[in-house]
Structure prediction request, 153 residues.
Amino acid sequence: MSFRDDLDRQRAQIMRAVRQAGNDWAEAMRAHKLAPPDAGFAGRLRALAEAAGREQVAWEHAHAAGLMWRPIPGAEQAEPPYELRPGTGRRGPDDLWTRFDQTVAALNRAITGSDAATVADAFGDLSEAAGTLADAVAADDQAAARAASRTAA
Prediction:
């Protein structure tokens, strides 16, 4: 096997990982779009964080292989699904939501360009912000459930 064949095989593997990460990301976003207001919110945030983490890794590999992100014109104005937007009664600490909103805006800016490393970094930041938020919302949910069970007893 030649070096070129090996490089082609490596790029094909990376592109499969990029496609899978993109599919995971789309599925996590769909879950928020179709979500009823329920106790599954923390789990949806966790799934979003994990999908963003997979996007980060996939695009880090793509960047290392010399691949570029395909820019999405106008993405700066994109909004997340309703339940993730400011002013919609989002549960969780305001400071963590502020950080989340900042990372969404940074990702939206990053995906208008073609630098895969910048996109990977933005997905990584969003993954961290959403994961921290998921932990906080889950802790709040658990505390509320304990309080409700004490009240019912």
Remarks:
- The chain has four helices and no strands.
